[in-house]
Amino acid sequence: MRHNGATQDGAGIVIELEDVAYSYGGGELLTGMTLSLAPGSFHFLTGPSGAGKTTFLKLCYGALKPTSGHVRLFGEDLSAMGRDAVALARRRIGVVHQDCQFLDHLSVAENVALPLTAAGQSAAEQADNLRELMTWVGLTDRSGALPPELSGGERQRAALARAVIMSPDVLLADEPTGNVDWEMSQRLLRLLIELNKMGKTIMIATHDLTLIRAAKAQVQARVLRIAGRQLQTAGADL
Amino acid sequence: MRLPDVTNLRGMLAGDGAADRVVPPAGFTVRLVLFTAAAMAFLTIFALALSLAAGRLADRWGDELARASTVRISAPADQMQAQTAAALRVLQQTPGVGAVRALSEEEQRALLEPWFGPDLPLDTLPVPQLIEIIETPEGYDSDGLRLRLQAEVPGAVLDEHTRWRKPLVTAADRLRLLGWAAILLIGAATGAMVTLAANAALAANAQVIAVLRLVGATDGYIATAFVRRFTLRTLTGAAIGTVLGLLALWLMPASGETAGFLTGLQFQGWHWLWPFLVPPLAAIVAFLATGAAARRVLGGLT
């Protein structure tokens, strides 16, 4: 893996939200959110189901545009970015969804390498990188399998590998441990902490408080909470 | 949003195999697009042959028309000179008659030769004198002329054997126009068909598009994957249809110059190059149609 992402930006804020609100169908889901993600920071995002965690993450990677306020990705205002600019920004933002989607007709290895293919980089050049990454997430044996043949934990790890293969500056993970057992969630957490130690900005949406506690023992993590349509900084006692 | 333009067509077709693979192979639609493109190309070949044959027919008959009508004078030998002179005078005074000329003895001999052989003693036979009339574009009033000739030159008969072809030439021209209209319609139908197929494929592959967007693929990249597939498919189908169409034409019974219209349904000379334009044109139609469909679908996504 290449680990050059975060250092290029120096102290620049990677993702910034300024008084962001998001509403749909007339109802306001989120409002008045202001947040700056500094390079190398580690955030947890928690809150009850349906509070808008996934929506918040989508705002962070430009899948949704705020109904008011400003979202800035790497200093660029999302509202001023065209579709291609958003696509290019996503190459610097790795995303792991709760229900990881893959191209089911391609092998796991090809799926993990998909961001490279989509960015027009030759997969052959990145073969070592890919192999190393597959070893890192423990999927070397499964690299020829098709995504539907994978277990929940394997899917999460494949999604994580796909999210980081471009060596992004930020990793956004939505309930990455939602479908896996405790041991697997610990393993995923270790991988995420390792990435953070390499300088990546990490944001994990979860309602698993034991995971947050386990992480806090190993890394300095801030906990954000969405409640009452607002984004709050949770107490340190979690 | 960026999409490859037509000038990029070749580069795109030469292509990026990896990009092509991101769209899952879908057996049924592949065969449908192939089949429809082939059928359309097959029909185009026939419409093309029809247009070109109708065009040739119209041109040939048109030429014959321009060549004029004749007045034939049958009279006793001693009156022949006088009657011919009278007929020429009448004709020259008739509005709508451009040029008038009595055929010389040699010309008449040449005309009769195919029937009576070269040794015909023309001077001993009561051969009628022929006068060739070239009309002006407006044409003359044939009934009026006939009446005048009847009054002044009793031995003269106006022969308008080519006149009846005039409506046929118009009909052949129409037929040519219809043929081209059919080709345009087939082209438009091909575009519509490819658009429908592309829309279906884009809808069926919503997850593929979502995944590609998530990992940072640009719209141009995603569109190219679909556009490439449909363009190549249409090209292949159209090539198959063209070959089958040509084969069917080639198998039609041929006959010589005297061939009627139906058996004249063939390509001639450089016209044989036309059919080879069909597959590339179909591919361009597919390229534009899929590009527009992809642009529309992708533009509506986040």
Structure description:
The complex is a heterodimer of chains A (238) and B (302). By secondary structure, chain A is α/β, with parallel strands linked by helices. Chain A has a single domain, classed as P-loop containing nucleotide triphosphate hydrolases (Rossmann fold, 3-Layer(aba) Sandwich). Helices cover 33% and strands 24% of the residues of chain A. A six-stranded mixed beta sheet of chain A has the order 6-7-8-3-9-10, sandwiched between helices. In chain A, strand 1 (15-24) and strand 2 form a beta hairpin. With 302 residues, chain B is α+β, with helices and mostly antiparallel strands. Chain B folds into two domains: 6-62 and 167-299, no CATH class; 68-161, Alpha-Beta Plaits (2-Layer Sandwich). Helix content of chain B is 64%, strand content 7%. Chain B is built from ten helices and four strands. A four-stranded antiparallel beta sheet of chain B has the order 2-3-1-4. The interface between A and B is medium-sized, with 31 and 26 residues.
Q: Which key features would you list for this structure?
A:
heterodimer, A: 238 residues, alpha/beta, Rossmann fold, 6-stranded mixed beta sheet, 4-stranded antiparallel beta sheet, 9 helices, 10 strands, globular, disordered N terminus, B: 302 residues, alpha+beta, Alpha-Beta Plaits, 2 domains, 10 helices, 4 strands, 7% strand
List the helices and strands and how they pair.
The complex is a heterodimer of chains A (238) and B (302).
Chain A: H1 5-9, E1 15-24, E2 27-37, E3 42-46, H2 53-60, E4 68-73, E5 76-77, H3 83-90, E6 93-96, H4 108-112, H5 114-118, H6 127-136, H7 152-164, E7 170-174, H8 182-197, E8 201-205, H9 209-216, E9 222-227, E10 230-233
Parallel strand pairs in A: 3-8, 3-9, 6-7, 7-8
Antiparallel strand pairs in A: 1-2, 1-4, 4-5, 9-10
Chain B: H1 9-14, H2 17-21, H3 27-66, E1 69-73, H4 77-93, E2 97-102, H5 105-116, E3 129-135, H6 142-152, E4 156-159, H7 166-204, H8 206-214, H9 219-250, H10 278-299
Antiparallel strand pairs in B: 1-3, 1-4, 2-3
